[in-house]
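#data-curation
PF: Archiving a pair of folding outputs for the training set. Convention for this channel: one message per protein, sequence first, structure tokens after, nothing in between. First:
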Amino acid sequence: MNKQELMKTANEIRKGIVTAVHSAKSGHPGGSLSAADIYTYLYFEEMNIDPKDPKKPDRDRFVLSKGHTAPGLYSTLANRGYFPVEDLTTLRHTGSYLQGHPDMKHIPGVDMSSGSLGQGISAAVGMAIGGKMSGDGFRVYALLGDGEIQEGQVWEAAMLAGHRKLDNLVVIVDNNNLQIDGPITEVNSPYPIDKKFEAFNFHVINIDGNDFDQIDAAFKEARATKGMPTAIIAKTLKGKGVSFMENQVGWHGAAPNDEQYAAAMEDLRKAGEASCQK
């Protein structure tokens, strides 16, 4: 995909996020929207995957460590062809396979059940070690929240990843600076994030996580890095794409009402038109 196509796809993924959370009347739109460009690049450009064969042995793996932002992953999987986009409206409904957190047993394309913060990166490290031991060439990607990295288990996993020189592992931190209770700097600051990962023997790349040129360059650099895992610290805007949600902590875990939903979709419609004109 070229940059314009990636921007258009990311916009469609954002529409799916807002639609799913509105339909569920609950969920986590803010951190789903901030990471939509990362999801888009991973699933439409970077990863070796096949929606027709979700369990193919040599596929690249993705772990959503911040599992509460499942609407972002679900919308991406749906737009990539793993299941119908129309199913996004069943999010969190009784009987739906699209639960509030990713479920690897029932959702096509989900490689790891997640939701308990801090644990997803451990699973990703295990997958990466498994890939090294088996000699399979797959790569493993894990998306963490910047509030999530306040969890100690994250650093235990990072220590092992650096020790084992897991150059088939890429950790992405969605650094939107907001968590459920407010700015991460006020709750329990993890800064400087890049220096911490460097201390655990990671190759570190700092980028604007809502800029496809920088995203593209970062993942190419990660692929070329040998002998150590990579951490991409992606500075993003929480609620990106919906004007009244942007950088507002209240939209961490709230659903739009009908009027807000209409306004959000209008924002995204205009954004879609603008991307087509670039």
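PF: Second:
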Amino acid sequence: MRKTRRSVFALAACLLLPLTGPAWATDAMDTPSGDVILTVSGTIDATNVDGTAQYDLEMLRALPAVSISTTTIWTDGVLMFTGVPLASLLETLGSSGSTLRASAINDYTIEIPIDTLEANAPILAYELNGAPMHRREKGPLWVIYPFDSDPKYRTSQVHSRAVWQLDRIEIVD
């Protein structure tokens, strides 16, 4: 009797397991209540609006954040940028693509191989020196690398990936 009961529970668990994957992630993602500042599309499991993942600033702030203090070739002095690591954002969305296509409000678009993302670099910065970034400050979102931490981040290729005024990400195979 015990063996039969365990078998029934195991079978039920196997049948219900597919219902806990992407459908759960989709249901768990909130919809933006403020202005949408980022739309992620492509090969993602978690969505909230018409097959995309849309974020307002508060939704991004709710994700684990890191800060990077660095200089950039576009600004003066050492600045502190705070935001969500791109790798964490993609993990949250259940991304399965190989390339991240990042686009700015002026349609500047660059491809970033997902296998080049590190745990804490680059970040999708939404704060500059503790305050929200505005368009004049290359915000509201800016892809930031820790340029000062390693020479590998001071190349023209990496600089081209530091998209400011980012508003769209597409994940492609």
